[in-house]
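Re: export button greyed out
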Amino acid sequence: MTEAIIADPARSRPKAGSPWTTAYGWAIPLLLGVCVLLAMLVSLCIGAYPMSFAQAARIVLHLAWPGPLPENPPWTVRELVVVQVVRLPRVLLATLAGLGLGISGTALQGMMRNPLVGPDIVGVSSGAAFGGVLAMLFDFSPAGVIALAFCGGMLAIFCTFTLARLAHASSSSMILVLSGIFISGLFVALIDLVKRLANDAQFPTMAFWLLGSFVGADPRKVAMIAIPTLGGGAVLMMMRWRLNLLSLGDLDAQSLGMNAGFVRWTILALVSLIVASQVAVSGVIGWIGLVVPHCARMLVGPDHRRLLPVSGLLGALLMLALDDITRALIRAEIPSGVMTALIGTPVVCFLFWKAQGKGWGRE
Amino acid sequence: MSNTVIEFNNLGHAYRPGEWVFQNYSAAIQQGSIFALLGPNGCGKTTLLKVLLGALKPSTGSVVMDGRSAFVPQLFQVTFDYSVLDMVLMGRARQVGLFSQPSVEDEEAAMASLDRFGIAHFARHPFHELSGGERQLVIFARALVSDAEILILDEPTSALDLKNQIVVLDWITRLSHQDGLTILFTTHHPHHALAVADNALLMLGGSNLVSGKAGDVLSEENLRALYGVDLKLLAFEHKGHSHETLVPVLPYASRARQQAR
Amino acid sequence: MMRKPIGRELLWVVPFLCIALIAAGLLRHEPRFPAPEHFRTVVDGGGNVIKIALPFRGIALATNSFPSGYLESTRSPQLLVFAGKPSDRDMLAQNAMSWIYPEVLNNNKLWNTRLFRENTSPFTEVETLLAYDPSVWIGCGGSPDLVRRVGLPAFGCGGSPAQRERMGLPSLRSKEDCGTPPDPMRSRYPKGYVNSGWYYPENYLFPGIRSSAELIGHPEFAEPRIDSYCAAIAGLRQQLQPASLAFRPRVQMEGESRGNAPRAGVIDAEVERRIPGDDAERLLVMDPDMIFMVTGTPQQFARDLRWQGLKAVQNHRVYRRPGQLEFWATGLTIQPVIVRWMAEVAHPERLQPAVRQLLRDRVMSEFGYRLSEEQIDLILHVKENAGSVGAERFTRGYQATSEQGSSK
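Workaround output, generated via the alternate export path:
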């Protein structure tokens, strides 16, 4: 009796061929998770000192497993130094930076209902970078750098939203992007100003740091990025279904019984924390936060329950691959920020041409 | 006996001081009834809805809403191309904790709700691939799954073809009668309001309004005052049921036709 | 009880946990290389104690410890097991050390020819050096912190002379002015320039040569070389008598020999007058009597319209000076030659032409190698200086005619 006129068979179309809506869509994050772990191990084998995959895996497994290392280890001190001191911190830094950027880019895009934004576009990155160089100008400790970077990131995103609100269009995506670009511009100018104030010893450090690089990774830096990224990332992961709701717009989300303002600012704070920690240890790395969400969306569709884990893992994978390329195949050490832009731009072009809007929002 | 679920008194809103969109509006809506809101373009229908939903703070007066509400916007645009099931699942926002994901039960409820509207086979389709009428039904399913008691619809039939208009209006009646939902909707079609609404409110601008039983309010005189055009109330019988509808009288076209004859 | 799709959550929880566990693995004690069972202890110029494993497995050169510098200061090519990356090899090929020790340049085993050969990241450098397994490295090949933390045998990796002094070890800087009397112009020089400690090249040369000699296990090699250096400086002083010079030309000079200006009887125009503004304007205002370049040629310089009005250009007093870094690294061999060259250009009336002979003698006494006439021409830039006043005394076979000229 309830069958609607609408359900007449002539109008029902064949089942849509979108893979992400089927059960095996969940296989992609599983596959990516395995890929990331494998990629980390493979990255540990890349370098001048010869290291077999099995040996690298054995050492990492023993390091990660709680409890003391074996008395008579099946490896030499040399191999342990190469893995633990030289390569692992860098690999972890790249993985975590990619993970954080992928997650925060997706969260920002979902929250702002805008596939054009990324941490570097709404101003978080430049704000965090400004905080970072400011901390360097006053010779703060590394913890001070991350704290000030976080404050800078939050300040920038607050400014972006306030500016959009001034235009009475806090939900208009175009206005949001525009104000993000303005605020980014302002903070970039401030960074330049700080660079001019820096002395000769600080300037090269700042310049190299701003370009983004994983050179000089050590356990302290890994801790600085791992705790905010994994902690903040886990909270974001738990809240990720709310991003679906936020992406409908405040009015709709509100009417479905969600406190949109609270959730939005919580997510913004988490994103700022993650981006700030990434910027603090490896400088501004563009593109990943913008490109990865799109690639992930093409893989598993827009549902954030799948999208957010996939973005994180894809970001980690991409960043690792880029870092391996800079480390191994390129003759000189190119800052990762440069590499991501050099490789990211053609990738985006290709995706735009290939996808022609599929998986992106319409209108 | 039905009790009042939405009540507003002396409600007024002005975007800038002194420029009232509406003023001194008062009405009460009973549980399980259908309430239609009519008015010409720009009279502030959407503003009134936003005030009722709490998205805008009223400049004067108060709103009491007793029950969970769900809002169905006029043009449903989503930036990201969610599947139909994902869309319906979002209706469970109240039931799912802030830090958790929808459970299997939530998904089953969403599927059941889709099934109810006869569109379960679209569950895994992208929302954007659906027609306007199908989308409207998806949003109904979402509202239903959210355990809403009050459904607020902004021009639910405006962008639909004739058949889908009828489907949607039929569903509005059915949700009210079978599920006891209170439904408030805005429309540009007085005959839609006459066909399904129990009560109606005509926004004549400023502090002028007419409200009451749909049959009384939607009179020829009131509608002339509202739209500035003539409408004719027609009564007829069809398959043993008596019907009433409103038909606009086109001043020039009818004269031209007369002369042609 | 709600049925939650736990499996889906595991898809992110598991990778997060794995990464967190691996990251937590870094909290373990860093591995530290155990001290070798048999070793010889050396303290470098920065006060770092290095335990060199015995039996000796050779020396590896880390980034920025130039192979040419190693060869010049140790004269021990046979101890090398790793000399550097291809770009270091290219640099050595340009250097006089490749004439003297061609076996280092030509031995492929000493050079990194692998995939990662050009990697200059300080961290991956460490693993390159680990791969070659030497008894001791020269330089850090990475961050000094890292190298010291894991206890690697790196010689000349960070530290400071003060650290060495705190250990109660004798300074390596004795004889550093070769007995040269204080420069009369010294008070007019900028403070940082004089006080930096690098005023005379010996300030870094002598500590380097002494610690290198200690590194290779022959500390007695250092002093004779230092004495021979100082003897060459003293010989020039005796012939030039700089204290009695009535006129000292003002010279615009580049490169690493500026502290030697008073020894050559010239005034470093740059430090005499410090003028703000860009380099071009400064040079025009200084208008020096002579210009000693270490890059480019005098002809190119004179062709530049900006310099046409300079006194030095009009009088053909622009020279290409023999450089320290272009054929040498440490300067131990060439610095006395450079001083003599400058003095002969500035004061030809007081000095017999002896630069070619001095160069030949120094290379012979240091390395037992006889430079050919072509090599000497190359080092002294005879071709480039052909058009400059007084440069003919550095040409081959000038000796005989010059005696006739000076007897006039």
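The CA atoms of residues 130 and 191 of chain A lie 5 Å apart. The button fix ships in the next patch.
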